[in-house]
User: Fold this.
Amino acid sequence: MDMHTVVNGEGARHGLGRVVLGDGRASAVTASDVLAVARGGARVELSGEALAALAASRGIVDALAAEPDPVYGVSTGFGALATRYIGPELRGRLQRNIVRSHAAGMGPRVEREVVRALMFLRLKTLCSGHTGVRPEVAQTMADVLNAGITPVVHEYGSLGCSGDLAPLSHCALALMGEGEAEGPDGTLRPAGELLAAHGIRPLELREKEGLALLNGTDGMLGMLVMALADLDVLYRSADVTAALSLEALLGTDKVLAPELHALRPHPGQAASAANMLAVLAGSGMTGHHQDDAPRVQDAYSVRCAPQVAGAGRDTIAHARLVAERELAAAVDNPVVLPADTGPGASGSGGGRVESNGNFHGAPVAYVLDFLAIAVADLGSIAERRTDRLLDKNRSHGLPPFLADDAGVDSGLMIAQYTQAALVSELKRLAVPASADSIPSSAMQEDHVSMGWSAARKLRTSVDNLTRVIAVELYAAARAVELREGLRPAPATRAVVEAARKAGVGGPGPDRHLAPDLAAAEAFVRDGRLLAAVEEVTGPLR
Assistant:
């Protein structure tokens, strides 16, 4: 279900192809950095400031570990077992055991980019100086990322509270030289062998370090960041295909006038309408709605395209704000804080360790689900436009199913079936995961976010939306070509020409459609649709 969006690493600061985790502030990391590491293979480096922050927080943990009073995560068990004091001789074993026991995922492997995003974001939090791990723990994680080693992480195992425990545990297990991982050549091998092959020494965990490697929202956040990048492309692509459908249906572009959208000042709506207008500029096909079969207004799926796509854009803007806040966070439990201890804190002269609930994934889970709803609706309205193009009673002069010889040829009839099946799946995937909660850990963790599940289904939704848009593109481009005697907009001509060069077939007798649809999907997915349009229009909003 990978989108495989092209990312060239331009978001990585301090040089192309590398990201430096900086000055002890988690807020230094951007979405572009996540994409550069997860998808672009950028190297990760730790600055001197980050190493100093790691050493300082580790000093606090070491001081607390030497005291006789129990401190959660340092000298106690975990979760429902947190009441047991653990002596110094068992603490290394305790940290190893939490990683081993929590690496309990099941199901298929998740994608490489998801694991890399998850590890990078965990490393970002380690370098914030609030987790108490030694500098060598963070350096080992960076070394594994830079070596192209990808631990095996499974689909199922996270409830999205106490973070993405099982997925992060599988990553931590690999740092210990245990479990399986994929090498840079794509081959699965024991993690210990891969570490040895790249000169990386397996970690021997000490107090708090196992827990610090597991307790974060990094998986769901990484998937949110990547989904936002993909949706930025897809929403602009949907504006293009909506414009092509309007044009093919001989609709009016007057409903896209800026002064109309200013009356309802939702920024996403205005941007979508402006994009459609830009694509339609110079068209000789718009405004023919009063010709042979006069109609006062276009159907909602055409006329209200900016309102629906715009609402989704505004949802994306909210989700991006949440992602930026989460990128600025240091999520762990417990966290290490400096010396200004407050009431009830577990502290030593140099600082304190505090339990908290910041690992709860609700903020991220909610927006992941919001996005799935918006994606489903965008897919739904695109499918309605496609169906209209294929229906001779509503297409204003186009042949049935855009067939070459209707009756002998079926045209795009079943392409629309496929699109309808995808939209039906999008609607099922829009059911919120975050509305559910299931208790765990002997009722200690009695309310969870299900954010990982929300992220996983959103990835499927984004992938299927690409296909839905591709089918609309395929139908609209064919319909435009069938309007003989009318001249489409220059941007439309550029799209059709580029699509044909990309292997997306045009009108003609029935043929095997799956290869055409796959070519259309690739044309949308890798950004060539947008590139073709923007060569004419300039950058879309």
